[in-house]
Design goal:
The chain is of the alpha/beta class. It contains 2 helices and 8 strands, in the order E-H-E-E-E-E-H-E-E-E. It has one domain (about 5-125): 2-Layer Sandwich (Macrophage Migration Inhibitory Factor), CATH 3.30.429. Helices cover about 25% and strands about 30% of the residues. Helix 2 (about 80-95) links the parallel strand 5 and strand 6.
Length: about 120
């Protein structure tokens, strides 16, 4: 159950459902997994809630500041799979926010056994 969280300062609210679906499909293809196995969220940041380059950014800056994307997944993916996932997610997010994918910032975190609680227990595998 990889989790993908997208946060972006946006001038106009994007149509979110197609973006969430495309992001999950793109990440799933990179991981050779099923899109249904992914949890994806989008949060639109309000003007004044994003600091970049030492400046608090407003709506007029939405096309200049990076959407921030975090991918969290259990260990076990190859470096190639992770790189493919990072690129695929950046392109999908950029497409739906009308931004160059090079502007999208995507980070990947591996979840180790014993560091995740789900289903009523700490996952140890």
């Amino acid at each position: 159950m990889p989790i993908i969280r997208i946060e972006a300062l946006v001038a106009t609210s994007p149509v979110v459902e197609p973006m969430l679906n495309e992001v999950s499909r793109a990440a799933a293809a990179a991981f050779d997994a099923h899109p249904q196995d992914f949890w994806v969220t989008f949060t639109a940041l309000r003007a004044g809630h994003y600091l970049e380059g030492g400046h608090v950014r407003g709506i007029d800056d939405a096309h200049r500041v990076a959407p921030l994307v975090t991918i969290s997944s259990y260990e076990g993916r190859s470096d190639e799979q992770i790189g493919d996932c990072l690129r695929a997610v950046a392109y999908a997010v950029g497409k739906h926010l009308n931004l160059d994918p090079e502007l999208v910032f995507v980070e990947y975190h591996e979840l180790r056994p014993g560091r995740v609680y789900t289903g009523g227990a700490v996952r140890t595998e």
